Amino acid sequence: MNTQDIPAYMTRVGEAARAAATRMAAASTSAKNRTLLALARLLRDNVAALDAANALDLNAAAANGLSGPMLDRLKLGAKVIATVAEGCEQLAAMPDPVGEITGVKRRPTGISVGQMRVPLGVFGMIYESRPNVTIEAASLAIKSGNACILRGGSEAIHSNLALWKLVQAALVEAGLPATAVQLVETTDRAAVGQLIAMPAFVDVIIPRGGKGLIERISAEAKVPVIKHLDGNCHTYIDAEVDIAQALVVTDNAKTQKYSPCNATESLLVHVNQATTFLPQIGAIFAAKGVEMRACPRAKAILSDVPGATVVDATEADWSEEYLAPVISVKVVDTLDEAIAHINRYSSHHTDAILTTNHPNAMRFLREVDSASVMVNASTRFADGFEYGLGAEIGISTDKFHARGPVGLEGLTSMKWVVLGQGEIRQ
Amino acid sequence: MNTQDIPAYMTRVGEAARAAATRMAAASTSAKNRTLLALARLLRDNVAALDAANALDLNAAAANGLSGPMLDRLKLGAKVIATVAEGCEQLAAMPDPVGEITGVKRRPTGISVGQMRVPLGVFGMIYESRPNVTIEAASLAIKSGNACILRGGSEAIHSNLALWKLVQAALVEAGLPATAVQLVETTDRAAVGQLIAMPAFVDVIIPRGGKGLIERISAEAKVPVIKHLDGNCHTYIDAEVDIAQALVVTDNAKTQKYSPCNATESLLVHVNQATTFLPQIGAIFAAKGVEMRACPRAKAILSDVPGATVVDATEADWSEEYLAPVISVKVVDTLDEAIAHINRYSSHHTDAILTTNHPNAMRFLREVDSASVMVNASTRFADGFEYGLGAEIGISTDKFHARGPVGLEGLTSMKWVVLGQGEIRQ
After folding, report:
1. Spatial contact of B23 and B90, defined as CB atoms under 8 Å apart
2. Strand arrangement of the beta sheet that strand A147-151 belongs to
3. pLDDT, tens digit (0-9, with 9 covering 90-100), for A393-419
4. Is A400 in contact with B26 (Cβ distance < 8 A)?
5. How does pLDDT run across A47-88, given as a tens digit for each residue?
6. What NCBIfam families has UniProt attached to this entry (chains A, B) (predicted)?
7. Range scoring the smallest mean pLDDT among A200-209, A248-257, B308-317
8. Contacts of B375 in chain A (CB under 8 A)
9. CATH number of the domain enclosing B80
10. Which of B109, B173, B296, B303 has a 20 to 30 A CA-CA distance from A226?
11. Within this chain, do residues A331 and A351 fall inside the same structural domain, yes or no?
12. Which residue from A113, A369, A423 is facing B25, i.e. has the nearest CB?
């Protein structure tokens, strides 16, 4: 397509997506699953061609001096392709969310009223360098009966174009419209501005990337945005707790991996457990080189731990998402103080209580206003795969529509269905 | 409160709402129900005082030359007060939506994952002259565990202030924060601009009023809007149909009341039924003075009906919400054409098929992309009370979050809950 005139180009893309969405909403479960299985096969059969396209991006990126981690994210290769192909097959095996009818109840007037799950329509996905997101987003769109418009990072354009060709081939093979999944074929940034401001063609925008990108898109979008800003996750050690278990879970929540958004960034400890728990977790953190930014009471205890790096926490530390071997630590006097602190400083992503006290567990579950609230588990579990969603298109830190990991259901909504026998309103 | 400095005033209102929302989210079902029952009692006990406040508004409105229907909407009186008091009692009798836990499933890792229904937080409600909306919105906020900020029409300010005092008294009597329901005490329009642009304090805006107001608010809001633009509802007479029943239902859908948004504005008739159905429904419409704006084929048939007013439909007619004794009429050749016409011209509010053919009914249900889709029932049923929601805060024509009548559940969302026994991520 001619991509010179961006507004005209994006309008054509939008119109095609809207038309395809109608066909995808009515598509049979069988056709959608056949598409996913064909896509898995095509991915495996075309590893060499995909690697060749990927090499163009990798060489350009290396020539432009991109860093090692950036090149890592950009790389496809047999292993990444096998993983996304398997993901397509897993989605094919999942129940179709579309058409589910729930809660049908007979009303006094005689009509039966319930709700039917239907696709949202068209979603726009804006993401950065990782080309496997192209397949993840396309496969979720296909299974959920939506059309999508994908705008990947410009540094991955050759890889994305090659992957997209396979998606289109799979759609056509199964008798579905190739335009159900479209890739923005230009790296011109003006296309993003258009994509987020076409309410006639796009129902929701899902950005994935740095906080700056997501804030900018949210501020400028003319359609709803499913957004994930940051993950300042808390683990709270209650007054009554299994200390041995709490040590294992807290260690896992912080140190199993530092970069994910569901890693714990702040540790709250009830004063009754502070002198028991803090020296032991402090020793674990010290051994792994985790810096502790502590309140005065926590610092007094942690400073005695051999080899520990303990500094004074500033006010800013309570809100910080470190994504690094750093954790803020605070001693609290009550469960109420812990809940109030979390509701004030958390990014509302994931927060956990470790406790043996049932009423406290239930109060924490109910009163902590976060997308995922956990009892006696590592915050690292907050993830679409771990929750059984099959795949996730993103994690929402918003309250509206979908909270937390967003899978197939988050790409749908419920319409009302009324089944009558000729009833009229009196 | 000092309302001179609007930004400072609205910030204080917003901060108080956010603080109250935390307490409302944790409020017991019993406290919320006691508030609603106290409010019903206070409303009934204060009819005279409410009428006196209402008289100030009515007199000012009459002096300003407001029209009869406007004065009607503004009027409280014993009957309106009895109705809203009864509404509070009905809400008290309904199950509490907050805290419902659904879909808890054990995962292979050992954790159990489910979802818990929680309040959205703070909603802002912007409405026009009818003061009973103050009680409807307040009572829905209380039962759903939200805080709300109400901005009623300036012409109803004395009535709204008097009603709000009773809401606050009921909250205090039940031990809940008076600030859970706040009324914007100034009629300065700048307050609306502030209310819709405080994402830190307001989670969602619900406007009720004319299309112009709602479009303006949607364009300018910095938070999600649950909006209802218009209701261009269709009734489609299928090829196989119970004609006697179809006549009764179509008549009801169009003529039972002309002003509601769920009244049918457009009639589609399958060509096989056109010569049978159209003359009969045409006679009913002619007798009631309903003007028919018809496609050429429909016009050829309807023009023979004695006393009928039949004119050529223009392209604009297919999109029109008349709210008047006018209906557009089109003959279609297939179910596909009917569905395509509806998906193109409908406002996605409510559309119905009248049919005896089961596959056609199921295709219509699935493929018509509207908030309410009906089989063999009058579109006039699209209503929160008729659907059993107890009450409705509005009707959404959006796809995101909530579609159609929005009741208690539409004012909540689902957070994830994870129940573990010390599990960690591998």
Report:
1. no
2. A181-183, A147-151, A122-126, A204-207
3. 888 988 889 999 999 999 999 999 999
4. no
5. 999 999 999 999 999 999 988 888 888 999 999 999 999 999
6. PRK00197.1, proA
7. A200-209
8. 417-420
9. 3.40.605.10
10. B109
11. yes
12. A369
**A421 at interface of B, judged by CB pairs closer than 8 A:** yes
Q: Which residues of A touch B371 (CB under 8 A)?
A: 415-416
Segment B6-17 shows an average pLDDT of 97
| C-beta atoms of B416 and A425 within 8 A | no
CB contact under 8 A, A416 and B404: yes
Domain that holds residue A34: 6-226+406-418
Give domain status of residue A394, yes or no.
no
A351 and A276 part of one domain: yes
Q: Establish if A155 belongs to a structural domain.
A: yes
Give the dihedral sign, CA A298/A299/A305/A310. positive
- Considering the domain architecture, whether residues B243 and B130 belong to the same structural domain is answered as no
Residue B225: both structure tokens together:
């809007």
Would the CB atoms of B413 and A400 count as touching at under 8 Å?
Answer: yes
Q: Mean pLDDT of all residues in chain B?
A: 95
Contacts with A24 (C-beta within 8 Å, 6 or more apart), sequence order? A32, A119, A141, A142, A145, A146, A147, A176, A177, A180
- Do B180 and B51 share a structural domain? yes
Mean pLDDT calculated for residue range A170-187: 97
One DSSP character per residue, A330-370 reads: EEESSHHHHHHHHHHH--SSEEEEE-S-HHHHHHHHHH--S
For B95-129, how does the pLDDT look when each residue is reduced to its tens digit (9 = 90+)? 999 999 999 999 999 999 999 999 999 999 999 87
In chain B, % helix, strand, coil (3-state, to 5) comes to: 45, 20, 35
Q: Supply the pLDDT for residue B228.
A: 80
**Whether residue B238 sits in one domain with residue B116:** no
Quote the radius of gyration of chain A (alpha carbons, Å). Answer: 24
* CB neighbour burial string for A322-354, b if at least 16 within 10 angstroms, e if fewer: beeebbbbbbbeebebbbebbbebbbbbbbbbb
Same domain, A215 and A266: no
**Residue B110 CB coordination number (10 Å):** 12
Query: Residue A422: which of B245, B365, B366 has the nearest Cβ?
Result: B245
Residue B397 lies in a domain: no
CB atoms < 10 A from the CB of B27, how many? 23
Do B369 and B330 belong together in one domain?
Answer: yes
Contact indicator for A377, B416 with CB cutoff of 8 Å: no
Q: Band the pLDDT of A227: cuts 50, 70, 90.
A: confident
Are both B178 and B315 inside the same structural domain?
A: no
Number of domains in chain B: 2
Mention every residue, 6+ apart, whose C-beta is less than 8 A from residue A115.
A101, A102, A103, A414, A415, A416, A417
Whether B424 is in a domain gets the answer no
Residues B195, A28: Cα–Cα separation, whole Å: 45
CB-based contact A377 B120, cutoff 8 Å? no
Cα distance from B381 to chain A (closest Cα, Å)? 6
Confidence category of residue B3, pLDDT binned at 50, 70, 90: confident
Is residue B394 scored above 90 in pLDDT?
no
Give the CATH number for residue A284. Answer: 3.40.309.10
